[in-house]
Each structure stands twice: as C-alpha cells, then as structure tokens.
Amino acid sequence: ARRKSLAKTALDEPEYIRPILLIQAENSRGAATVEEVKRHLIETDGVNEKAVAIATGDQREIDGIDLFAKDCPIEVIITKQALKEGWDCSFAYVFCSVAQVKSDKDIQQLLGRVLRMPYATRRKQEVMNKAYAHVITESFGKAAGELTQSLINIGFNPMEAAAAIRKDQPDDGKLPLKGGVATPPELPTTRIPLSKAPDLTNAPERDKERVLFTPDEDGKGGTVEITDELDVATVEAIVAAVPARQKDAVGEAIERHQQATLAAKAPSERGAVFQVPRLYSLEQGELELVDRGAVSATFDWDLLASPPDLSSFKFNEDSMTFEVYLGDKVVQFHQIKDDVATYLPGFAQDRTEVDLVGWLDLEIREPSVKQPVKREWLRRAIRSLMDDRGFSLAQLLKGQFILRRKLGEQLAHAKGGAYREGFQQALFHDGLELVSNGEPDYAFTYPADMSMYPARWYYKGAYRFRKHYYPVPGDLDWKTGKGVITEEFECAQAIDFLDEVEFWVRNLVHPSQFWMPTATQRTYPDFVVRLKDGRLLVVEYKGADRFTADQEKEKRMVGDLWAKHSGGKGVYLMAHKTDDKGRNVRDQLLTVIGQRGR
Fold this sequence. Notes:
Blueprint: H1 2-10, E1 20-24, H2 34-43, E2 52-54, E3 76-79, E4 92-100, H3 105-113, E5 132-136, H4 140-153, H5 158-164, E6 177-178, E7 181-182, E8 189-194, H6 205-208, E9 211-215, E10 222-227, H7 232-239, H8 247-265, H9 267-270, E11 275-276, E12 278-283, E13 286-289, E14 321-327, E15 330-336, H10 353-363, H11 371-387, H12 393-398, H13 400-428, E16 434-437, E17 444-445, H14 487-497, E18 501-506, E19 516-517, E20 522-523, E21 527-531, E22 536-541, H15 549-564, E23 570-575, H16 585-592
C-alpha cells in the first residue's frame, strides 16, 4: 500500500521514478520465507508476478537488469539477508522486514538501500524525499531504537537518527502557523518494561507527571511510559528498577528518548519560520541583491593607473631534456642535449616586441578591460623590463610563459584593488541606495527540513543546546584535538543561555546559507539569532588568529551597514573572547541587544 501510494505520487515528479519495495523475508526455518512472501504478494495482494524479483544467494533475478529503465516492470525485491555489494537502486523507497528486527549488519545494509534519493536530487513533493521502513515487532519503541541504532551504525548522527525515526504525523496533520510559529507536535512516548515501580522520591515534581508506571496483571513487574525530557535523577531511578543485565539497554533506550524529545522540540520541527533580511540596492525602482564586488552603475577603473610590479620577475635559462625508451618490457630514460628553441613553438628568434605583446594579449584575458588599454599596459610592462631591468628581447621570449603568469597575477591584483575601492564607494559613500529587505519574497529563509541543512558533521558535545533551530548544530566542535574547549562553542553556548533569544542557528559556510557581501567574496556569519522581540542578531565570532585586520574591518563594516539599513530589525556583532573593554562574549551580546549599558 505504501509503495502504491508513492508510485501514484511519483507521477507528478518531473523525472521518472518507479518506487521499489524491498522486503526482508525470514530464512527457511521461519514462516514468512521468500517463497511464502512471493506467493502472498501474487495471490493475496494481486501483484503481477513480473513485478516481483528475488535477490538471494541462490536466486539472482535482478542480475543484468537496469532497474532504472522505464520499461523495467520490477516493483518489489525480496531478499533474506544483506544484499551483495554492487546492487544499488535509489528507486528503493520502502523497506519492509517480516522478520524480527535485529540491529546487525544485514539490517544496516538493507536500510542503506532505501536511504538514497533518486538522481541524488531533492524531489518536488515532500513525501518523495523520505525513505520508509516497515517492521514487524511487539514494541514500536524497541523497533525505533533498533532502527535508530542501525542508522547510527551507517553514519547518521544520533540526534539526526532520533529525529528521523519519530512516528509519522497523519497525512492531514499539517501544522497550523500562527505568528510564524506552529503548534508544537506531540512529543514522543517511550515504553520500557521494568521489574518494579521506579522510586521517584528524588525526582523533580515535573518528572512525576512525565513517568507513568503501569503494573502487570500478575504483579511481578510492569511498564513505564515516559514523555518529555527527564532529569538525571529520574533516569537513574528508572534504570535502578531493572536487573543488572538490562541496565545498559534501558539506559540507551532512555537516551534515545531524550534525543528524540529534543529533536521534536527544535523550532524547525515545530514549523517555526526563520527569515533573515538581505541587503539590496535600489536602482530605478528595482531591488537588486548586493553581492560580492558590487559597484555602482557609473563605476569604471583605469588599468593604466596600476602599472605591474615585476621586480620579482626572473627565470632560469637552463633546461634539461630527457629521452624515454620503451621496449621488451624495459623502460629506460637518459638525458640528452637539446635546444628547446628548435622545436617548442613561440621561441623563434625573428619575433618582435610587438609579437610578444600580441601573444600576451591573447593569453591574458580580462573582459572588463578594453583591448587597446590592455595592450598598452602590456607594452609598457615589456618596455620597462627592457629599459629599466636590462632584459633583452630574446630573454623575454624565452621566459614568455613565466611573464604571462606574472602579468596575469598583476592584472588580477590591479582589478581587485580597483573593485575594492569601488565596493567601498558604492556601499559606504552613497554610491548605492541600500535597503535591508525582510519581506518574504526578498529575505533569506532557512529551510525547516533538517536534511537541507548542509552540515558536514554534527555537534557531539555533552552540553545540550535548547534553542538551536535544528535538532543539533552542524560544523561545531566543542573541543580541539588537544581537549581544549573551542571558542566558537563557548560563543554558541553563551547565545543559547540568553533569555532574550527565541532561537538561533549555526550558520554554515555554504552557498545555501545566509551570507553578506564583501569586495571579493561572500562572508558567512557564524551565528544568526532570532530574539524574542522579533529582531535578528547576526554574530561573527573572531578568533585571535582567523582574520587579518583588513578582513575583520570590512566584514564588520558590512555587518553594521546591514543593521543600519534594516529599519531597526537587525543587530550585528563581531564578537571576541574578550573585547577592548574587557567584556566577555556574554556581556558583548547583552550590550549589543541593548540589555546593558554601552
């Protein structure tokens, strides 16, 4: 039924997708064998026999078949254990195990088959961006825990896995948005069998409402049902109510519950909208996003005003030529005397200075400079080397490739300097009319789907962030390799501590994230914060050795400019471990948001 539903939905995708169901049957000692599963599919569910393939050690019915082909009829693949390496089909959307779920390598490999997106591309419809696992088990909590562990074993971060294994919302259970924040979803519930009722004497009062113990009919034990986060003392009381051999498993189950609860509370999971104004220029009534190197419409630069610095130009006229001989399974080589000028093109001695300038003009390309201007700049450079440095034309012809590289570097340097001045003039000296636009059509919006958060790795520290937009921050180390707490973690923690903060995000260095322009590149602030009063706080953390003074100054100027044109909706801070007034990061944050005197 799940596969059929997805197949119907897939018809509305721009590219061809035929969702495939992967079934893990029991071995020959079980009841739901490969043969029985296939018989049931055909006789009871009415699946066409051509649509079912078996992939086991004995039967390899998918060998040599292109599962991506539009004329391929296969919709269901039945296996018993792990599939051999070499089979891969990102059309495998649904995994169903009719055997008891076990957290072993077989399950890991099978799950891996249904965790790939077709064409490695995010699909238009949200249901086509998910993989679906159906299992037979006595306890959903147990199955969720085992599936979570399997996901962790194949590379998922524990928090991400916990978020992915929560119970599905009903198809019509869309979260109603009110004021940008949706109604919180139902928190996960975990049920654990215990030998006796837990002693909650030392547990906080709030936890006594979150822990419900129901005794078994025989009075020999019972089941505890836990909701929401639990205090350490409460967790210890629950673990103490099981035999020693079960304590580790129960502790792990509660930890998974804690992680899933935190994930469910994340603003992104609640449907909170997180938008950040972007910097635009207003020209002739049209808004244009200010990007790196932005200049005004009247900007022009003069290459001839920036003669190249060729003081380091030199080359070694010595060359070596080797001859390599291959024959009778023997490879030999030896040096020979040769004159490169006799066979390498471009070294003919009858070439003139004009020829050299013309060759350099063709080799060094720069669309923003008119050709006559570039040729004159090159001519002056060649003439300076000959008149001021004493190089002969023959020497320059031999060193033409080095000369090409040096002059190319100098032209790029001259252009960069000119555009930096043009950028400064446009942004800071009334060259452009600027506005920091927060309207939905112009603002940057963080996607609520964590799968679109482009983290390379996830935070794994002991401190649990309570206000991060996603269930867990990305690209944030809490300790260095030497065990020292990182300054960026301390800054993130300081943000998380503030009562004035509604939620925040670890902004990543990726084109899909929020950025600000500089003269030469895009800069990605470390943290973006939504305050409870509706303002947006952008924080760039500056470590002692991270930026030059010029880079720091330009980023801070652009950040302040963004805040200035935000109409009071934006606040910017370049934070330091300790600023020039002796304030720590927390005090710097409180000062900039207006909670402490400046």
